[in-house]
Amino acid sequence: MTSATTDPMLGRLIDGRYQVKSRIARGGMATVYVATDLRLDRRVAIKVMHGHLADDEVFRERFVREARSAARLAHPNVVNVFDQGQDSDMAYLVMEYLPGMTLRDLLRERGRLGIEQAVDVMDAVLGGLAAAHKAGIVHRDLKPENVLLADDGRIKIGDFGLARAASANTATGQALLGTIAYLSPELLTRGVADTRSDVYAAGIMFSEMLVGAQPFTGDQPMQIAFKHANEPMPVPSSANPEVPEGLDDLILWATVKDPEERPADAKEMLDRLREVEAGLGIVRHAGTASQRTMLLPPEALGPSPDDRSTTVFTAPSVPAEEAAAEAAGPEATVQLVARKARRRRARGWWLLVAVLVVAAGLGGTGWWYSAGPGSMTTIPTLAGSAPDSALAQLQEMGLKPDQRQQTSPTVAAGTVIDTDPPGGTSIRSGSAVTVIVSSGPAMLAVPTLAGLAEADARAAITAAGFTAGTSTTQFSSDVASGVVIAATDPSGTALGSEYGEQQTIDLVVSLGAVPDVTGQTLDEAKAALGAVGLVATEGAQDYNEDVPEGSVYQATVQTDPVRPGDSVVLDVSRGPAPVPVPNVEGLTRDEAKQALQAVGLVPVYSVFWDAIPNALTKVQSVSPSVGTSVKKGTNVNLGITASG
């Protein structure tokens, strides 16, 4: 914690208006300073949110909610809020400055308060709380730290940081932001708070003022919470015999476990407190009810642990009966004392009977809430278990389970989804619990996806209530590139007309036809296939009459369907097959010519021999020689002679 001497806020001018003078206190959410409002020339208290929380939307919302909640209240027992704003990265709240101490400080110094002192404080607290409840605000964090005792005798409630509208009963996780020692059973077990939760906290705080200790204590917060939810409220007079029966009854009424049996709000509790005050002879005038509390000087209270010896008191009043006896003389006073002694003895017997009755009732209540039908149990987390096992476990715990089917896109059919109330909830023994069992996902109609462009198909999948999965590609000579060929489930099985809600649909998308590489050179064919993700491998080399040597005459795919990464075998032409030179020796010129051309060879001889009649010519020699294998189109030289 930063010391006051090095606090960078000291001396800072906030929002051009509030000059920070000194630090009052520091809490988990904010630091409170004394400041001067330069515009109105008055001292104020300014609460500044810690810097590391300024970016947290939840804390900022809570900070603003405190300002708005308190600003709605105009009551002498509620701390006034003047302003709220943001200066650079700093959120702040400007409040009424009340020099003095908190009720917690007073209890630390004095242990417990006198009866009239405690009644005075509680009267003021309930007055401010009643105004909040009337305005539709639940404080939700009532405790001695939030009750301010000003030096001039005023008593005010502050810190509405957890306040919510009275109709917004759900507390959720923020319920436990309040001090555990003052939280009502319903707030601890169900996270629900309303005006009766504030009444419960007021009752606990009233008991602490009269007894000097909290009614429920423990080493761990959960131990205290368990006692609030399950153990009976201790009777204050059992720890402090000076507590009158009327205050015992009021506190027990305010702290009943069942909120339905408590006062509906602080106003109802305040009305009952005023009745008890009248019975105790405490006179409260309507016009000054909130102003009766004063601060005792140190010498009036005797020795104290330290110099902070301020406490709260109410100026004592003389009962009318005593005043009349004093005026009548000593004899009347003696008679009055005797009558009072008889009344005290009679009241002692009645008090003993009342204590025995209360003890018996508390004993029965203890059995009811600890081992009897009113005892609480926590529902286990059963999600993911088998239904029969879940039902048996709940029955063994003394609960009344039943079963209900519910569709679920994420939980397998025949598996427990959750319970109602959910796992972790505390409920009374014998209560009904519903086990919710998955019947699998709801079945929905599958749209026609084949023939759509991939992007359109994915949009159709989402619109129909399914999840678009992966897309695989393959070559197709029948479907254009980028168009869906088929839709399947993740296992590759084709879909029917219906499919499970939110389940995954995968797509098969066409890449178009495999490129035709016949007639291309081997290198050209490899490059063309590689460009579309196929792997070219060399196959056979053979003679081909139609394809030039070195070119692909056949490309064969190895898989069906064909996908990127698959192989294509390329067969390469060696050109036309060779032929042997036929034996044309002894034939006439034209006969030899026809024989060579018939096998694809080219006869070559001197032009001179064309001028001689064919019948007079004879082939005398052949080159290349007869029987030599040569390529088609090869020239064969003929040696011709004249005959006859």
TrEMBL record:
GO terms for molecular function: ATP binding; protein serine/threonine kinase activity. InterPro entries: Kinase-like_dom_sf, PASTA_dom, Prot_kinase_dom, Ser/Thr_kinase_AS. Keywords: ATP-binding, Kinase, Nucleotide-binding, Serine/threonine-protein kinase, Transferase. It holds the Pfam family PASTA. Gene3D superfamilies: 3.30.10.20, Phosphorylase Kinase, domain 1 (3.30.200.20), Transferase(Phosphotransferase) domain 1 (1.10.510.10). PROSITE patterns: PASTA, PROTEIN_KINASE_DOM, PROTEIN_KINASE_ST. Its EC number is 2.7.11.1. GO terms for biological process: negative regulation of fatty acid biosynthetic process. SUPFAM superfamilies: Protein kinase-like (PK-like). This is non-specific serine/threonine protein kinase. It comes from Cnuibacter physcomitrellae.
